Amino acid sequence: MMNIFSHPSLVDETTSSHQAKVGLPGNYYFSEQIFAYEQQTIWRKTWQFVGRESDLANPGDYLTCQVGDQPMFVIRDNHGKLQTMHNVCPHRGARMLEGQGNCQRVRCPYHGWNFNYEGNLKGLPRAECFPNLDPSAVYLAKGRVEIWGGFIFVHPESQGESLVSYLAGFSDYLNQYKHSWEELQQVDHWFYEEPANWKFPIENYLECYHLSVVHAQSLKCFDPKNIIYTPTGRHYQIFVPFTDDEFVKNHPAFLGEPKGQSYQGFIFPNMMVNTAKDKVSVFKLTPLSPTRTKFEVFIYQTKAQIEEFPYQIEKFRTEFERVLNEDFRVVRSLQASVHSQAYGVLQLADIEYGISHFHQVLSGYYQP
Ligand code: FES
Ligand SMILES: [Fe+2]
Question: Cα–Cα distances in Å, from 18 out to 13, 25, 57, 122, 343?
Answer without folding.
Answer: 10, 11, 56, 62, 9
